[in-house]
Amino acid sequence: MNGRLRFAIAAAGISAGMALAGVSVSAADSGPGSGWGSPNLVFAQTNAASGNQIVAYHQTGGALTFAGRYLTGGTGATASGAVVDTLASQGSLVYEATQRVLINVNAGSDSISVFGVFGNRLYLRQVLPSGGVFPDSVGVSGDLVYVLNAGGSGALQGYQFEGGWLSPIPGSSRSLGLANSDPPYYLDSPGQVGFSPSGRQLLVTTKASGSDIDVFQVEWNGELSASPVVNPSAQPVPFGFTFDNFGRLVVTEAGTSSVTTYSLAPDGSLNSIATLGDGEAALCWITEADGYFYGANAGSNTLSGYRVGFNGSLSLLGDDGGIVASTGTGPIDLAAANGYLYSQAGGAGAIEEFRVNWDGSLTEVASVTGLGAGIEGLATS
């Protein structure tokens, strides 16, 4: 029996034991989407040190209604110096539609959790070691998963889905060669891991630890190249990123509260195309919604809107310097689905719900509160 199979069987046993112990705190017993083909759901991570939880909501016309609350089998943690962004990262909670799973990090217990999503319910399937300390971000492409561990030297660990179960890929661990503590200082911890649209490259932003964007090649067996191409960012402190429809990289650079677009070459090199600041403070998180790009300014309690041109150029939305909404204290993670944008306020313990209008402007629909300060992690199904 190989190591990966032994690991998967052990993880299955752990997960089954947790299910029998009742790790689901509460869940909706009925409602729309009780079978496969899950309804539109929004997931938030509490990141509580006393016991990390996932809170699920139904999305109905943009408004959120409670669907369930679930223990992850791990604990949350706070990066040193963090105020409203406890994990200081983007992508700590991700939904993968093909596998119908939700994956979250447990930064306090150095693990990740894998939930099966069945209709409007979650089932804890696995709790796995993260392969390092203080995991803060997850990247998924097809059956491949990579976890970013932000503490210490910084480490990437690869996993692969096999028959619905996630198991580590032998030889996939890569050190980022950083010099962080555990927990890491929030400005120096790497900010996000994610795959290129093709799935052939894996990117990591290092924030103030060099202000680089590292690009690894993904090999045929799921392992990474021995070392990355290290690309200096156009502006300091690269944090969150996504891609546009043309495969261009769109990155927030918190040091100047800017967004930069890059072209990504097959060899892993980046070429900056355009940079545009929003005049706010701590632009760190970014997502795309209906063809527009929205950034969260944690230091200004605002959201900014950007348009990316066909040639990679950038322009701000609206007539107010790109500011499309005011938010509760400490806007951090963003997620979008079905014409709506969701903004997580880390300081306020809330999720604010906005309708995306035809011109990119936002109209606030409603909000949910009471999640507790320190939340971080937001995803939609």
Overall outline: globular
CATH-level-2 architecture? 7 Propeller
Backbone structural class: mainly beta
Termini, distance in Å? 35 Å
Total number of beta strands: 31
Please indicate the count of domains: 1
Fourth-tier CATH superfamily name: YVTN repeat-like/Quinoprotein amine dehydrogenase
Quickly name the level 1 CATH class: Mainly Beta
User: Main beta sheet: strand number and arrangement?
Assistant: 5 strands, antiparallel
Describe this structure in words.
With 381 residues, the chain is mainly beta. It has a single domain, classed as Methylamine Dehydrogenase, Chain H (7 Propeller), CATH 2.130.10.10. Helices cover 5% and strands 47% of the residues. The longest helix has 19 residues, at 3-21. The two termini are 35 Å apart.
Layout of helices and strands, plus pairs?
Blueprint: H1 3-21, E1 26-27, E2 41-45, E3 53-60, E4 63-71, E5 93-96, E6 101-106, E7 111-118, E8 121-129, E9 135-141, E10 144-149, E11 155-162, E12 165-168, E13 174-175, E14 192-195, E15 201-205, E16 212-217, E17 229-232, E18 238-243, E19 249-253, E20 258-264, E21 270-277, E22 283-289, E23 292-297, E24 302-308, E25 314-316, E26 323-326, E27 331-337, E28 340-345, E29 350-356, E30 362-368, E31 378-380
Antiparallel strand pairs: 1-4, 2-3, 2-31, 3-4, 5-6, 6-7, 7-8, 9-10, 10-11, 11-12, 11-13, 14-15, 15-16, 16-17, 18-19, 19-20, 20-21, 22-23, 23-24, 24-25, 24-26, 27-28, 28-29, 29-30
